[in-house]
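Section 3.1 - Work completed
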Amino acid sequence: MTPARFDLAIAEACRIAQVPYEEFVSTVMAGGYPCLPGVAPGSPRRFNETDLLALYIYGRLLAFGFGGLRAGEYASRAHAGLTAEPRANSISIALTSDGGKRVVIEQDLQRPAAAMLPERIHFDIPAIRRQLQPSAAGSTAAPA
């Protein structure tokens, strides 16, 4: 069982990112969300902007019908991509010609590489940031 402060931080992040709390906790408990902040002993349980973007992507993947573990896997890949490329304009999960899937991070929306892959789920990062800002600004939960 998780401590109350842990639950409060996750509940608030789920509210902001519009993610079903119970589904997310189940994914975390199954080890399917490795980018969860505060996993390392002694590290703070604070959801920064990158954490909230990845959590939002997780929630949208659930809405698209992905299972929690698969959504957690792709959200964690998106988190890693956003950490490496903080100015990314888009993230896509695309089917490759050999039937695999890959996460594509793009900084230039004028010529997106993922656009060459016709079967994809595309996330507009600046639009998601704008959508999350009002919710995050109204957050009253103390950081854990």
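Second construct:
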Amino acid sequence: MQDMVERIVEMDKRARELTDEAKKLRVGSEDRLRAKKEALRKGYQNRANDRVELIKKAEVKNAETELKSILEKQKQAQQRLDDRYAEMGDEWVARIVARVTGDEK
């Protein structure tokens, strides 16, 4: 009988040790999972930030190219207007003066 009680106590002690060990393993696993989750999150965030920077650089380059194109078109339009004014400026001034003074033909 005493032997049986000792065996039960020993089994209970071993069961508690196994339970404690399982708890420690679970806590360790949870910690490793948290660390792995955080590392993945940081990795995803870093890749997303890198991608945003690439897109930003591409958009800035496209905007600069488009601005150069617009400025060139504006410069050409200004040149055409200046050329036309050089050609027709005296006539335009005469017409304006005639309209203002009422001397239109």
